[in-house]
Amino acid sequence: MRVTISGPPGSGKTTACRKLSERLGIRAVVFGEFFRKLAKEKGMTLAEFSALAECDPSIDQTIDSMILDTAGHDHDIILESRLSAHMLTKNGIPAFKVYLDASPEVRMERVGVREGESREDVCRHTVERQSSEAKRYKMYYGIDIEDRSIYDLILDTDDLDPDQVADRILKAIEENT
Known about the structure:
Rossmann fold, 5-stranded parallel sheet, 5 strands, globular
């Protein structure tokens, strides 16, 4: 079974991906890590690299091709990226599509802990990054990242620990397959 996990920064996507991978015994691919790696290789922050991607469509096209290639060759996989559900839907590749969300306060706290940044810096960088992504996805693919109609499960993770998130996703998968 293919599962996509999408959502904004700090919603718990990567953690949920890893938990599901452990429980289902299938591989998880976190495309956000690849984007971070590319930014680091260029000596750029995520916000700076996102701004570069606005001028260089090959960055997103490379990652999105990897998503489609990975999904096309592996029927038992978990894909984590902001666009994975949209890309698979657009290309007719079946998957159980999950959208994780959390309040801005919770998300900024999580990102701050992960990145080791001040709350002010986290807020600024996250807003810049999300704005850049929304612009690029609309410009390159005609995708409105705020359109949640394609998801099989939308889950607010504010008051859930990682195991509870995984439990709810697994229950929804079981009920829908």
